[in-house]
Amino acid sequence: MTSEFEIIEHYFKKKIKQTALGVGDDAAIINVQKNYQLVISSDMLIENIHFLKNTNPSHLGWKSLAVNLSDIAAMGGKPKWATLSISLPKINHVWLKKFSEGFFKCANQFGIDLVGGDTSKGPLSISITIMGEIKKNQGLLRSGAKINDDIWVTGQLGLASMGLASLQGELKLAPSLKVKCIKALEMPTPKVSLGYHLSRHTNSCIDISDGLIQDLNHILKASKVGAALLLNDIPCEKFIHASKQYQFVLNGGDDYELLFTAPKKNRPYIEKIAKKTNTAISVIGVITQNKTLKIMDQKGRSISFNKKGFDHFA
Ligand code: ADP
Ligand code: MG
């Protein structure tokens, strides 16, 4: 197996379940339900920029799709179709087998058809476009946050950036915590089901990929509001409180948790959806009229913090 076409046929052409025409022609054809809109997003993963050299290829296959699914989750959509464009320095069958296994493990878990893509020789890079459906005009935007909304977050923050720091030898962690953090970094779980069911009960939503502060600021700017957060209410490891290394929680990237705002009266619905979808959620603060972001400690004192998140060109 030495050609581009054999690679596609062997590793990437899989049975499709919800697509009119998949891999094999010049383009794919998909049917969209009446009264729904397409929701589309792309994410690139480039070696040494988005992932370390020698990352487990199966984990990389999972993560490439998972980070894309997270964007559709943040829009309240149902992800259905993906395209995969990949450049490889050489044909490595062991790598391709593991990568495609990880990719399709994620695709099967979340009901995604791979419908096309492109394959080329080049430095290792992966670019995925994800498409999903959303009920007409029910997309969850960044711009809808209202004063006095609760600010919610899923899961635990900071794990992925702690995992990266520990792999890079910059952070020493107990063995079991290290395993948990590296798993969060390499195999994030996109909050697809929660995002989809939330859409009627929330005012705004974003997925946290570049750090809590930076991504919350996107909501604040788009919605023309401010926020007050309680540091102690942000869900994270005990290690963070003990070591006071809050930068992992506030500025660390790659969490792929959802951050959303909703009226206080919707708490019971939101808690019900979280329970149904088996997702941990926490209220970490409130949307304010004053267009700044404040973080308070237990005694109600404003703490100073680094406002920067991840920025490729910073
Ligand atoms: P073209 O030359 O017309 O662009 P290609 O030879 O690039 O076609 O691709 C042939 C078919 O294989 C197309 O259906 C394309 O979408 C699909 N394809 C190519 N690379 C991949 C990939 N990595 N994953 C899934 N489908 C792919
Ligand atoms: Mg092509």
UniProtKB/TrEMBL annotation:
Residues the record lists as binding Mg(2+) 4: 26, 41, 71
Keywords: ATP-binding, Kinase, Magnesium, Metal-binding, Nucleotide-binding, Thiamine biosynthesis, Transferase
Residue intervals of the PurM-like N-terminal domain: 24-134
Record's signal peptide: none
EC number annotated for this UniProt entry: 2.7.4.16
Catalytic EC class: transferase
Residues binding Mg(2+) 5, per UniProt: 210
UniProt binding sites for ATP: 117-118, 142, 209
Keyword field contains Transferase: yes
Keyword Nucleotide-binding: yes
Positions annotated to bind Mg(2+) 3: 26, 71, 207
Amino acids binding Mg(2+) 2: 43, 71
Domain spans labelled PurM-like C-terminal: 148-296
Catalytic activity: thiamine phosphate + ATP = thiamine diphosphate + ADP
Single GO term (MF): magnesium ion binding
Positions annotated to bind Mg(2+) 1: 42-43, 118
Family: Belongs to the thiamine-monophosphate kinase family.
NCBIfam families, alphabetized: thiL
Additional observations: Reaction mechanism of ThiL seems to utilize a direct, inline transfer of the gamma-phosphate of ATP to TMP rather than a phosphorylated enzyme intermediate.
Purpose: Catalyzes the ATP-dependent phosphorylation of thiamine-monophosphate (TMP) to form thiamine-pyrophosphate (TPP), the active form of vitamin B1.
Protein name (database record): Thiamine-monophosphate kinase
Annotated source species: Candidatus Methylopumilus rimovensis
Source species taxonomy: Bacteria, Pseudomonadati, Pseudomonadota, Betaproteobacteria, Nitrosomonadales
